[in-house]
């Protein structure tokens, strides 16, 4: 399995039971998040923070030595570095709802506006009308920080931030308060959880900015993707030249640095969400996540619920663990879960063999050629003493064997760009990076330190077979620059994590996909484009890939919708994005999967690829209230304390008849669990956000294995804002219970709009 660099990673969740900090007495502490029952806070305490400190003091736990954070905006509780004998004291306290260990996350990791239609002439009047409105929207980005000098954050033409904005520009190492302005309106950093887990240290052996300044580049990239200002003549070393701009270039950006070289701690993430909600962000963008866990134990899910309840749209990356199924993360229904697709832009490169074969791949290499003139060079595969050399792992290549040669390396285990560095260090003249079955035909371009071409598995197998024939194999590398209008596109990225949702199968995830492959955006001033320490190149922009990149695209588009419809709930915005998404590429074919070229399905792309133009005027939306989410949590058989951890609500009364699939979600995930129950019925409610006197008729594309009936088949909306219910019956056909999932669609159609919901059917009998 490949282990890519942190900037292209999604998240692997690691519980920190072994991460501890020695206190003044030399006793190890472990960090926990303690959720409190706010209804029990005595009136004598003016703030939750004072109550949390007093509560610890009442248990003979010194808050000055142990308390790390106090949460009140997005969650109720605190983080503390605790001794083993503290745990029973807290868990037996009536005021405490739950005590969970802290967790560490890693990051998931311009043509986009044109590809999404945001720069089309027909759309420009709409964008210009929205420009002033987006000035009031602040997008909060939780990531590795920001490089404030990036031209993407120039905001000289913007008016002052909205009066309701309460954020601050936190001073720190190499980050004076003047680093912020009218585009970057806030910057904070959170590291207490990480320092508690790491014995007080951050970035051991690395230079780290103990401030909101971004050394990694990932945070600058995601923030500028969401809302970067327009920058002319942007490129990565000559690749993808053009005007780089975020999805919502008029919106503001606030950065919350919660990720460091060792990862992102749950306690720090929750502190960032809590601060962002209190500051007044309208959109939150988190290109990180965790493993599958019940929502009451998922830090991001808990914080995101509090944000959504406060009217904040929350977008999260789906993960980079595809194409394997059941790998999607960030699956809470109050979160927009975003997978990744390709753009219609590519960076072709070629491997030419003496046989005359010219084999296509991709590359972002921008240095000198392997030889003064295009010429064949010796090709070597396995330039070391054992098979590990075929992977080009550090220390496996024999310089005497690879010097002056092009080295064929199998993809996997170590980072793609690290393989290039290993080849270069051994004296290789170039590299061909060949996919194996694990990566299939997915091609991700990298800015290698030496001439290098990445090729898919089929091409890789041809080159491997040629190299194995013996004799004196030769090859030549060449580079084709930037090509637009690539067909087919979009294609679902092979790395994009897939459904079904393992936490709650009745909620279809991911929700949608957006551009996430080879994305050009801003970059840190102290990191090379590969992110390797030995990369001395510097550039204002970089091209990287991951669901980390697709997530801020959706965050930026959500900011446009929030500006256009300030009274819409986060659920209504997500509904608009989902029900107007498309599933046909630019060759008029159904979306395909980059892993093997086959047709993709709903577990890969959810409702489809985002379409901002149509999302602005969806016609109808599926809205969801906080009480609806409470009923949903009740249906999961969570106990009252668990529900209160998520919702901050006490004295909850659960409805008697509510199933997870009854949530008013814009998609359907039908799970047949019992052989005797082969019919399931769901209710949905649509709200008219289009014109009065709108008439919609239903169209059903039934899965082959299920009969679908919708009643009524016609909905008439006499007024704007009117709500209408409909019911759907799914009947599994008696003669078959397929092992594989089945898919279909339910669409409501008027003369102006199509509101389409995906249907996924699975059997778990």
From TrEMBL:
Domain of life: Eukaryota
Domain spans labelled Subtilisin-like protease fibronectin type-III: 662-761
Signal sequence extent: 1-24
Catalytic residues as annotated in Swiss-Prot or TrEMBL: 143, 218, 548
GO MF, any single term: serine-type endopeptidase activity
Keywords, alphabetical: Hydrolase, Protease, Serine protease, Signal
Domain PA: 377-463
Domain Inhibitor I9 per the UniProt entry, residue ranges: 31-108
One Gene Ontology term from the biological process aspect of the record: proteolysis
Residue ranges occupied by any Peptidase S8/S53 domain in the UniProt entry: 135-606
Family: Belongs to the peptidase S8 family.
PANTHER family according to UniProt: PROPROTEIN CONVERTASE SUBTILISIN/KEXIN (PTHR10795)
Protein name: Subtilisin-like protease
Upper taxonomic lineage: Eukaryota, Viridiplantae, Streptophyta, Embryophyta, Tracheophyta
